[in-house]
């Protein structure tokens, strides 16, 4: 698998299980790009939804993708502290055009005090039936949700103290 080079600017594209494009984030700057980990930064970028609607992010964010984990993490730097938004989905791929993954609906919102809420379980249940998610996918996602919650509780990976701040400092060097 190829991987994006440090300092390059790429798109991030999420898809649904049925192959339909779900969302596109423009202009994420690659801070670290390897075959196993991609860390990117962006600030007030345009996001395009599958129906064509567009909106702009409100704050700087650091994005963390791992090729072996069925989730990705976005750390948003807000005045009240770092808020995280975690998407359960396939490990990323990169094809030279964009970093891509399949979004499987379940999300985890993490607050600055490291408490969290699991979101969109109803959407996951509906899409599991509508798009006929295989049992293996359901099992992987449940294990991945447990792994993600454990990382949050233990403050590991992108949830380590100062992880987001340190990568944000690097992001500022590219602006």
TrEMBL record:
The keyword Lyase does not apply. InterPro entries: DUF402 (IPR007295), FomD-like_sf (IPR035930), Ntdp-like (IPR050212), SA1684 (IPR016882). It comes from Pseudalkalibacillus berkeleyi. Keywords: Hydrolase, Magnesium, Metal-binding. This is DUF402 domain-containing protein. The lineage of its organism: Bacteria, Bacillati, Bacillota, Bacilli, Bacillales. Residues 18-156 form the DUF402 domain. Gene3D superfamilies: FomD-like.
């Amino acid at each position: 698998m190829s991987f994006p080079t440090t300092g390059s600017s790429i798109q991030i594209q999420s898809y649904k299980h049925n192959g339909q494009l779900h969302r596109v984030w423009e202009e994420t700057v690659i801070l670290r790009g390897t075959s196993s980990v991609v860390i990117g930064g962006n600030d007030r970028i345009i996001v395009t939804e599958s129906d064509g609607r567009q909106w702009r992010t409100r704050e700087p964010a650091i994005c963390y993708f791992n090729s072996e984990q069925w989730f990705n993490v976005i750390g948003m730097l807000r005045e009240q502290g770092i808020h995280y938004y975690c998407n359960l989905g396939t490990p990323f791929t990169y094809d030279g055009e964009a970093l891509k993954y399949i979004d499987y609906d379940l999300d985890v919102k993490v607050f600055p005090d490291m408490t969290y809420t699991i979101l969109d379980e109803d959407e996951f249940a509906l899409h599991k039936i509508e798009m006929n998610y295989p049992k293996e996918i359901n099992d992987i996602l449940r294990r991945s949700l447990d792994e993600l919650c454990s990382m949050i509780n233990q403050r590991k990976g992108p949830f380590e103290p100062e992880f987001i701040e340190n990568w944000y400092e690097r992001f500022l060097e590219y602006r």
